[in-house]
Amino acid sequence: MVVAQQYRQLVKDRECERGFASIKKTFPLSFEGEGDKGGEVDKQSHNRVRKMSNWQELEHKYFMNAVERIPVTLVRGQGARVWDEDGREYLDFVGGWAVNSLGHCHPVVAEAVAEQAHTLIQASNQFYTIPQVRLAELLVQNSRLDKVFFCNSGAEANEGAVKLARRYGKLRLNGAYEVITTINSFHGRTLAMVAATGQPKFQQPYAPLPAGFINVE
Asked: Which residues, listed in sequence order, are joined to residue 183 by a DSSP beta bridge?
């Protein structure tokens, strides 16, 4: 039994190695000088990126379009700066739509992500995991929160907030369920959050929308 398990693990390891080799061959991105050299890009790697293909044409061919992109292909970031495939430098005021609060490639974040990736990738909420408990404790101890719930996106967080409000309304407010949002707001791309979003251009293609949302000026 142990031998069989070891054999299966060996096969998986070799499959992973072949997969990584394929990824490296397809996307030969390798940058150096992230710190001491002032963030200089390895020119040889950069040239390989440019020679690969027209990335935006490939995106149109293989990726389902759900958002209007800015015609810039970013390949590297450091702090609040990013670089495109032609080496042009930009100040990043988007921050991954308010996700990269510490900027790109912060060494503490990069080290923590690498360490966790070598330890345990994802276990689902069906099991207890130590980093999740520690982060929840840290947030509660440094805020006015009693408990926290981790979400994958802003849309999921908003969905969770609406579910909590409706649950409270059902239990404490005689079944109250309507949620008021403002015109020109944006709350996410799930069907319920499209209904909450006060922008007809996002709502009209998906009508009829879930009920219970009122958009006001």
From this structure: 198
- Where are the extended beta strands (E) located within the chain? 74-78, 81-84, 89-91, 179-182, 213-216
| Structure tokens given for 16 | 């992973």
Domains of the chain plus CATH, in order, are 31-117 (3.90.1150.10), 154-216 (no CATH)
Per-residue pLDDT of the chain (217 residues; tens, 9 = 90+): 434 454 345 445 544 444 444 444 444 443 333 444 444 545 555 555 555 568 998 888 899 888 889 999 999 999 999 999 999 999 999 999 888 889 999 999 999 999 999 999 999 899 999 999 999 999 999 999 999 999 989 999 999 999 999 999 999 999 999 999 999 999 999 999 999 999 999 999 999 999 999 999 8
pTM exceeds 0.90? no
